[in-house]
Amino acid sequence: GELWPPVPGDVDAPYEAAAAGLGMTVREARDALYADRPDRRRLARAPRWDGRRLLHRYNLELARAVLLDAVEMTVTARGGWGDVFRAVKLARLMYRIERTDDGYRVTLTGPAAP
Questions:
Q1: Cα dist. 51→25, 45, 60, 62, 65 in Å?
Q2: For residue range 54-90, what is the model confidence (pLDDT) as tens digits?
Q3: Do the Cβ atoms of 84 and 91 come closer than 8 Å?
Q4: How far is the C-alpha of 88 from the C-alpha of 95, rounded, in Å?
Q5: What is the pLDDT of residue 112?
Q6: Domain assignments of the chain as residue spans, ordered by start
Q7: How many H-runs (helices) and E-runs (strands) does the chain carry?
Q8: H/E segment holding residue 66
Q9: How far does CA 27 lie from the centroid of its chain?
Q10: CB neighbourhood size of 26 (10 A)
Q11: Does residue 101 register a pLDDT over 60?
């Protein structure tokens, strides 16, 4: 088989051929090559968050990180329980619901639960 890269200076040859065939520049061809990979995505427009909103989002992501490893989670809802239950059903989570004196307690379990 052929050696890669062919010779110093010819490293761009495959990109040039691909770019010509696709009607784009070599830079566009290089940029598009792995554009579907999450680590290659570019942020086109950043959300305009103030410090309070950014902190809220940061705390939310910290909670999500903990929940990824959770075996069981209990949610106590005193109001808006319909929204909680709808979200649980939409996510197709396994659950157990108990009525309490002032609302509901929903216990969510995952596939790793004993």
A1: 40, 18, 14, 16, 21
A2: 999 999 898 888 777 788 888 887 788 888 788 888 8
A3: no
A4: 8
A5: 59
A6: 51-109
A7: 4, 3
A8: helix 51-68
A9: 28
A10: 16
A11: yes
* DSSP 8-class letter at 92: T
Residue whose structure tokens are 């909103």: 53
Q: Which amino acid is at 70?
A: A
Q: Against a cut of 0.85, is the pTM above it?
A: no
Q: Which two tokens stand for residue 56?
A: 């809220």
Instruction: Please tell me the total number of residues recorded for the chain in this structure.
Output: 114
The CATH code belonging to domain 51-109 is 3.30.1370
pLDDT at 110: 67
Q: Average pLDDT over the chain, rounded to whole?
A: 83
Amino acid found at 63: A
pLDDT tens digit sequence for 15-53: 888 899 999 999 998 888 888 888 888 778 888 999 999
